[in-house]
Design goal:
The complex is a heterodimer of chains A (486) and B (1045). By secondary structure, chain A is an all-alpha fold. Chain A is built from 23 helices and one strand. Classes of the chains: A mainly alpha (486), B alpha/beta (1045). Strand 1 of chain A pairs antiparallel with strand 1 of chain B.
């Protein structure tokens, strides 16, 4: 699998996605090669029209040639490295030409070997524990501030990053801190890949056309000289000629059906699974946000309660992204100057820029005249026709945030953890019990149901197999359309 | 057996929805058989050249292959990056996703209803009546509901204008205006500040401050539809130029001469609420009786127990006759005029008897703008002892106080040049007074308009200083003496506009110093709404009266009440001198033109509001046009059939080819035309000459003479050359002769509360078992609705409320002609004929009456009407659910018929199988579609969208959901915060809006709830009970109080 940070994998056309993956490559070749062999071996063709046959082979060959660079796990790629560098927020601790929390990175490939870098970057803790002297020294030089662990990076990706550092241009102008406005550009730009996809489609069409031409020629051949044609045709059809003699004796219809079934069933299964589970599902979506806010730091290490910032989660349908004044409750004071050579952390500066707040001005004037709101990128996008209310689930359902959002406190960059598909909602509605006793509404409902039970046996649905009450949202109409769609 | 016979008798009244249905018009019958309003152009499409239906296997495979590929590619879309932009500094009271409610005052007219504004994330999205307001009493009219869209009108001016050029900077405008005002003051030239009625104490103070600085300013007010008749009559009779405050709650007998007090007259929301209280048969003291004399079949007339046609020009004679009857009974001298007992049969005598029986708790009102008529009305009410019971002249109404004579003087002064400057504040005389104003304004040295759009008057003014919408303003109102409502902003100004009052104070140099924001001095927090300097002005004033705390509390409540003044106004009137006028009125000949306000559009001030145009007229069910309403008598004389037009000429004004509409109930020798239409500078919806959008209808204001009379005698009317198809909703479906509405009389009801509702269907067989959740004692909720046909006046407030709440799109005139309106709730209006003795029951009665009539068609003047709101009935055994092939419509365990848009594939089977015809199909994508250029296609107009309700797309069915979003919200609140569902009132949008509380909603599984009681009531019936679909909506049989005479 590819790194989620590298691409929003679901955003890439799935047809194209399959050729990004080496398994698909094998599949592609395993399907494509027999074609080539088949075409070459079809002696009828050699006789009838060599040229067309040759073209066809070339077409197949060209389509492979075209996609070849994608399959190659080749030389390090600086462009990919830049993306990885940004996506993993290397820049929050490192600069190329300046010592921040960590050392300046320019020329690091001269200072350290590739192997050393791979080990250090992927898991510096393990590396230090393995007793590497350089690693321990480096750790101590930087005051024991441990670098994050990036085991999600493959060695090749680490080399991509190193390649980026190698080739990055030297700084030209002094850096400026602009307002924190995220670009509207998509998270990854697969447009070139779309072009490739179109090309593949074009080739596929050409293949089909040629197949038709072949048929026509076959027909003409049959009409013009039936004897020669039937002689050329040999015994049995193509499949039978390919198969061992024992199988080839089978009834061609049965054989055909057998082969089709064997091929079609798994294909159909995977197709269905793909359509149901992947198309339009954004699980794993982890866009780069305008401010590199780390939940891992705030919710995980500092153990700030989720509700401190997402304060409306208990009262509103929306958990809401906190307003910047919530950030300022702490970040008026917390500026991390110790980590940035006496300067304010660049990410915190983005908050100040958005509020047009000047930390050097005396207190009293809080915010400036030219504030510019932060345009966060929405991660969880329910369709408009689905109504979801956070307070219902958090207060009434007493769910933990993590039940749906995953271990956010461990996420450096927040990603969509659940599929947010309707099936996922319904599963939970079917299986989660309602805390009847501690909720007035359900208690009243339950009391009525129990009272009614004396003369109505049909309420047995409210009892689990052990005879104890277990009411799930599904029993209380939680699967009905208009509970969420209106 | 006898019961059955009786049932038959009471239920075979012949109801009809329109003339085409009554006469079994072949076209109409054919239309009813068709599924769609127009034939789908399939044949034409298929017969087009080059289109062959002969496809073969290869084509099939080609298309199939292409479709599969296309679908595969389309489903592999790349999701757009969506942003979430939180507040920089979140206001403490705002919780994203949760609505805030603020009390304020409706500014759609000067009635001053207290409202509750629903605000989501800083956007007002819904207006409802404030329950504490003595004016709105919890309801709000269609016009008020719709006024929220005027806030998000793209036609609003974004900046002030100087000579039609936009200027960003107010100081430039202020500078120029101030210097011109100073010159006019120095040279002693007169300036007129022409407003509509101003009943806001703080605004009047601001105007006074302006006048103090500019002593040459005179403040004059007028109203588009004038109440000068009453004002002048009261001035002469009580020495006080004011409207009385009517109290319909005390009136057990009401006689109205052409006053549409439930629809448009003075304070309709208040009157509806009060009137509705006495219209239920079970009310203490018995049901009230309502007699209406009128020319136009008004909405109020449709609700009357007795309605008599009256030629409006003879109104004075009618009222005089009534006076004489009552005077005779009281032993007081009568007016010396020949008594006209034959006026409308002996109806006046009947009315007099009813009034005398209820003396002291009766009320006589007139919609006339004739002072003499109103003096007589005063005299009648005085004789009946109605003052201080149903009429309060001490704590009078301030709702309308215009002065037509003063405006006429100002107009003449401006034309002659004696008035050198003019400022328009809430007034648009070029449209609604006199077209000559345009030329007169051009002569002025200084002309300023405060209009928020470039209306007819603003277009000819030198300066336009656009006023805020009332939802952006600080203000107050004193609609009735001693009753103050407050207006507070619920959104920061959308555009670079400024409150008119602030402008006046600014020019006068009387603005209070702006408070410096204590937190920042500037910056984000200085955008606080309270920082408006007019807020300080209002606050300073009310702090002085209520105290700072009192003012804050009053703001929260939206109102403050001062103790009522006791006492009785001294009557000094004398009607003896009116004899000659009365004799003259009796002799009136010719055809009258009666101008009226339509219930939605009213005076036309909100001329660019698509919700109001889309709202069908309560009586004619015509949308998107005004029309000349003709009685059958004139129509037959002119040879007018349907889709015809007429040419109309009166008072020197002539319109050709105005759509004509044969209105049952229209009095003979009268025609009616609604004012408020024909805007030329309203905008893309209402019409704009400048931008090339056609006007809607014709402007009827020019027919009014300088006396602002709404009745114009001697109108010439001829058949027009053109044809015109009006967009009318009521005849889209047929009754098919079924028993849809039930009625009875008060007398019968007293004997038998089941009267009129005896018929109950026997259900022999059903394919359904009774669902578990519907059984008594089931723990779930079972939502149901009850609608009282006695309380429903047909006003249409619920329709607009529903459209706002549920994001119902506006479809426009052409689509309505094709029977594609989208309203989730409609109000069906059923006519039946009444003659002297009884309601006509049989078709041959009608035929007989037609034959015996000799060209008078008098039975066409006498129709009786029932209004029946109709929405999804949420049937327990819903026919729609069983036919949906994809289970897009299904039943919930709470009794709701659910419509799931994301499942719907648009087969329309459900719509076809719905016996109530309440399902609506989205023929088009109405949002983001410039072919539907109303409000859904621009970002500003979309701000009114309710974020809790899906905006439907093309190709899906939709229908009333019983406001399931509100049900869910109420349930969640209890689940989250504790409490008992029994004490929680879930209100649907239609119910919340209804001024007369005709709609009740609630849980049928709670036996103590109001809804359960109503469903058990003897009057309750289900529509189309014989189908055994078991609707969750029940209607209360209409009871008419007809036997009192």
């Amino acid at each position: 699998m590819l790194n989620h940070n590298k691409y929003n994998i679901n955003s890439i056309n799935p047809l194209f996605r399959c050729i990004l993956n080496w398994k698909s490559c094998v599949q592609f070749i395993s399907i494509g090669l027999p074609w080539v062999v088949y075409l070459r071996n079809d002696i009828r063709f050699r006789k009838l029209d060599m040229n067309i046959n040759r073209i066809k082979i070339w077409v197949v060959a060209a389509s492979f040639a075209f996609t070849a660079p994608i399959f190659a796990e080749g030389a390090p790629n600086a462009e990919e490295g830049k993306k990885l560098y940004d996506a993993n927020n290397c820049g929050s601790c490192h600069a190329l030409d300046k010592k921040l929390v960590g050392p300046a990175l320019r020329g690091v490939h001269e200072r350290r070997s590739e192997e050393w870098l791979i080990s250090w970057i992927r898991n510096n803790k393990k590396f230090r524990e393995s007793g590497d002297a350089d690693a321990i020294k480096l750790y101590n030089d930087y005051g024991g501030a441990a670098m994050n662990i990036f085991e999600n990076l493959t060695p090749a990706q680490v080399l991509d990053i190193v390649e980026y550092i190698k080739t990055a241009p030297a700084p030209a102008a002094p850096k400026t801190t602009g307002p924190a406005i995220a670009s509207d550009a998509p998270v990854s730009d697969p447009s070139t890949k779309y072009i490739l996809l179109i090309l593949v489609a074009v080739f596929a069409i050409v293949l089909i056309v040629l197949a038709r031409v072949r048929n026509t020629l076959k027909r003409i051949a049959a009409e013009s000289s039936p004897e020669e044609y039937s002689e050329l045709q040999g015994n049995g059809n193509f499949l039978q000629r390919l198969l061992p003699a024992s199988l080839a004796k089978m009834n061609p219809t049965v054989l055909g059906l057998l082969v089709t079934t064997i091929v079609a069933l798994p294909l159909g299964y995977y197709g269905y699974k793909f359509a149901m589970e992947e198309v339009g599902v954004q699980k794993g979506y982890a866009p780069t946000q305008p401010i590199a806010f780390s939940h891992k730091l705030h919710a995980g290490e500092l153990e700030i309660d989720c509700k401190y910032c997402h304060s409306t989660v208990e009262t509103s349908k929306s958990a809401s992204i906190p307003a910047l004044n919530t950030c300022m409750n702490c970040h008026k004071g917390v500026q991390l100057t110790d980590k940035y050579n006496g300067e304010i952390s660049p990410e915190i500066k983005k908050i100040y820029a958005a509020l047009d707040y000047n930390p050097e001005e005396l207190p009293g004037k809080q915010f400036g005249d030219n504030p510019s709101p932060v345009r966060w990128i929405r991660i969880h996008n329910l369709p408009d026709h689905a109504y979801f209310n956070h307070s219902q689930h958090v207060v009434v359902g007493k769910l933990q945030c993590q039940s749906c959002h995953g271990p956010v406190e461990k996420m450096e960059v927040v990603q969509q953890w659940s599929t947010l598909q309707m099936g996922w909602c319904i599963d939970c509605h079917r299986n989660t019990g309602i805390d009847v006793a501690n909720n007035n509404y359900y208690a009243a409902l339950h009391e009525k149901a129990q009272k009614d039970l004396t003369h109505n046996q049909n309420h047995s649905q409210y009892f689990g197999p052990d005879g104890k009450v277990k009411i799930t949202p599904a029993m209380n109409g939680g699967l009905e359309c208009a509970k969420c769609h209106y | 057996m006898s019961l059955l016979k009786k049932a038959k008798m009471s239920n075979n009244i012949k109801y009809w929805k329109g003339e085409e249905e009554l006469n079994r018009d072949p076209q109409f019958l054919a239309d009813q058989k068709r599924e769609f309003g127009e034939a789908l152009p399939l044949e034409q499409a298929l017969s087009d050249e080059g289109f062959e239906l002969n496809s073969n296997r290869r084509d099939f495979l080609k298309y199939f292959g292409f479709s599969v590929t296309a679908v595969a590619l389309a489903s592999c879309y790349k999701t757009n990056v969506r942003h979430a932009v939180p507040y920089l500094v979140k206001p403490e009271e705002v919780t994203p996703g949760v609505a805030n409610y603020y009390r304020s005052t409706c500014g759609a007219c000067t009635a001053g209803c207290g409202v509750e504004v629903k605000v989501r994330e800083g956007r007002p999205i819904k207006l409802d009546g404030s329950r504490d307001s003595a004016i709105s009493k919890g309801g709000l009219c269609a016009t008020g509901q719709a006024s929220i869209l005027s806030l998000y009108d793209t036609e609003r001016l974004a900046n002030p204008l100087i000579k039609n050029q936009e200027v960003q900077d107010w100081s430039t405008v202020d500078g120029e205006i101030k210097s011109k005002l100073a010159v006019l003051k120095a040279t002693g030239k007169k300036v007129v500040l022409l407003s509509n009625t101003v009943n806001s104490p703080s605004t009047l103070r601001a105007i006074a401050a302006f006048k103090e600085t500019y002593t040459n300013v005179e403040h004059i007010s007028y109203d588009a539809v004038s109440y000068n008749g009453i004002l002048n009559a009261n001035e002469s009779d009580f020495g006080k130029r004011a409207l009385p405050h009517y109290n319909f709650a005390n009136a057990k007998a009401i006689v109205s001469f052409g006053a549409d007090f439930l629809g448009t007259w003075i304070s309709p929301v208040e009157f509806q609420a009060d009137y509705g209280k006495n219209r239920r048969p079970g009310v203490e003291g018995g049901m009230s009786v309502h007699v209406q004399f009128e020319s136009t079949l008004s909405m109020t007339g449709t609700n009357a127990d007795h309605r008599f046609p009256m030629q409006s020009s003879k109104e004075l004679a009618y009222v005089a006759t009534l006076y004489n009857y009552i005077a005779k009974a009281k032993g007081i001298a009568q007016i010396a005029v020949p008594n006209n007992s034959e006026l409308a049969g002996n109806s006046i005598e009947k009315a007099a008897k009813i009034l005398l029986k209820n003396a002291g708790k009766s009320l006589v009102v007139s919609g006339s703008n004739n002072t003499e008529v109103q003096q007589l009305i005063n005299a009648v009410n005085m004789l009946l002892d109605n003052y201080n019971s149903t009429i309060d002249m001490v704590n009078h109404s301030n709702q309308y106080a215009g002065n037509d004579a003063a405006v006429q003087t100002a107009f003449e002064g401006l034309s002659k040049g004696t008035v050198a400057g003019v400022i328009f504040f809430g007034s648009n005389p070029v449209f609604n007074h006199n077209k000559e104003w345009a030329a007169a304004i051009a002569k002025a040295k200084l002309s300023i308009s405060f209009a928020s759009t470039k209306d007819e008057t603003a277009a000819v003014c030198q300066y336009v200083a656009p006023d805020n919408h009332f939802l952006e303003s600080w203000s107050d109102a004193e609609p009735v003496k001693g009753l103050v409502h407050f207006t507070q902003p619920t959104i920061a100004p959308v555009f670079n506009t400024r409150q008119a009052q602030e402008s006046l104070l600014n020019w006068a140099g009387a603005l209070p110093n702006n408070e410096i924001d204590p937190l920042s001095g500037k910056g984000i927090l200085s955008q606080k709404l309270e920082a408006s300097s007019y807020y300080l002005y209002v606050k300073n004033y009310w702090d002085g009266i209520l105290g700072a705390e009192g003012f804050q509390k009053s703001l929260e409540m939206g109102l403050a009440e001062t103790p009522k003044t006791e006492g009785l106004a001294v009557y000094t009137g004398n009607v003896a001198g009116l004899a000659s006028s009365i004799t003259k009125a009796q002799a009136s000949q010719g055809v009258d033109l009666v101008l009226y306000q339509s219930v939605g559009v009213r005076d036309g001030a909100q001329g660019n509001n698509p919700w109001l145009f889309e709202l069908p007229d309560p009586v004619s069910k015509v949308c998107w046009d005004n029309y000349v309403a003709l009685p059958k008598q004139i129509a037959v004389k002119l040879g007018i059939d349907k889709d015809a037009t007429v040419n109309i000429e009166a008072n020197g004004v002539k319109y050709e080819n105005v759509p004509a509409f044969v209105q049952p109930g229209q009095a003979n020798n009268t025609v009616s035309l609604a004012v408020g239409f024909g805007r030329t500078h309203a905008g893309k919806v209402g019409g704009s000459l400048e931008k090339g959008f056609a006007s809607i209808g014709v402007n009827a204001y020019p027919f009014m003479s300088t006396t602002r009379e709404v009745v114009i005698g001697d109108v010439k009317i001829t058949k027009g050359a053109d044809k015109y198809v009006l967009a009318q909703t009521q005849t889209h479906h047929s009754i098919e002769g079924r028993d849809l509405v039930r009625e009875s009389t008060f007398t019968s009801w007293k004997k038998n509360p089941n009267s009129g509702n005896e018929k109950s269907a026997t259900h022999i067989y059903t394919i359904w078992e009774k669902a578990e959740y519907r059984k008594d004692g089931s723990p779930n909720h079972l939502w149901g609705m009850a609608i009282d046909l006695n309380a429903c006046t047909g006003c249409g407030s619920c329709i607009v409320s529903c459209s706002i709440e549920n994001n119902v799109p506006v479809v426009g005139r052409d689509e309505i002609r094709l029977r594609r309106e989208m309203h989730w709730i409609r109000i069906d209006r059923y006519y039946s004929f009444v003659n002297e003795k009884q309601t006509m029951t049989r078709e041959n009665d009608i035929a007989e009456a037609d034959a015996n009539d000799k060209g008078n068609y008098s039975h066409w003047e006498n129709v009786s009407v029932i209004h029946q709101p109709m929405m999804c009935q949420h049937c327990a055994q819903a026919p729609c659910e069983t036919v949906c092939p994809v289970l897009a419509t299904s039943h919930s365990s709470e009794g709701l018929n659910q419509m799931t848009y994301n499942r719907c594939i648009g087969t329309k089977y459900c719509g076809n199988n719905c016996p109530y015809k309440v399902r609506r199909f989205n023929w088009f994508r109405y949002n983001d579609n410039d072919k539907f250029d109303f409000h859904f296609n621009n970002p500003l107009g979309k701000m009114v969208i309710n974020p809790d309700v899906t905006v439907r797309t093309r190709g899906v069915m939709e229908k009333c959901s019983f406001c399931v979003q509100r049900i869910q919200e109420a349930k969640l609140k209890v689940k989250r915060e504790g409490g008992n569902m029994k004490n929680v009132q879930v209100e649907t949008a239609c119910q919340r809006a209804c001024p007369s509380n005709a709609i009740v909603f609630g849980d049928l599984h709670n036996p103590d709830s109001e809804i359960s009681k109503l469903h058990r009531n003897e009057r309750a019936f289900s529509v189309l009970d014989e189908l055994n679909v078991q609707p969750s909506v029940k209607y209360m049989t209409k009871i008419r109080n007809t036997e009192t005479i």
